[in-house]
């Protein structure tokens, strides 16, 4: 039975099985992170939907952002909202707008009306 490294990230053997194990662990961690981000996005969307429903679609942007701000972690995540009809995102914590790279990627991904 071949020996396996317990710390594939610091393997000195350079065995392909060590590299593959590290890659699998990395892929699994990234998949877990992506799932957590999806879960957070759905939860925040439901919060906005509930606020709009309770206020009969008359909740103000500051009221909605106040609710989203609770999930904001300084230097940990960015929560942004694109108000109806707007072309720029508004961040929950009042920080400067998101990078132009992010916004450009968003607009490329969203089908635009003719």
String of helices and strands: HHEEH
Largest sheet: 2 strands, antiparallel
* End-to-end Cα distance: 63 Å
User: How helix-rich are the residues, as a percent range?
Assistant: 40-55%
Sequence stretches where pLDDT stays below 50 over 5 or more residues:
none
Task: Give the structural class.
Answer: mainly alpha
Instruction: State Rg.
Output: 21 Å
Instruction: Compute the number of helices.
Output: 3
Give me the count of strands. Answer: 2
Strand content: under 5%
- Into how many domains do the coordinates divide? 1
Adjacency order of strands in the biggest sheet: 1-2
Shape: elongated
- Rounded mean pLDDT score: 78
How would you characterize this protein structure?
There is one protein chain. With 114 residues, the protein is mostly helical. The chain has one domain (13-109). Helix content is 51%, strand content 4%. It contains three helices and two strands. It has a two-stranded antiparallel ribbon with strand order 1-2. A hairpin with an 8-residue loop joins β1 (80-81) and β2 (90-91). α1 (16-54) packs antiparallel against α2. The termini are far apart.
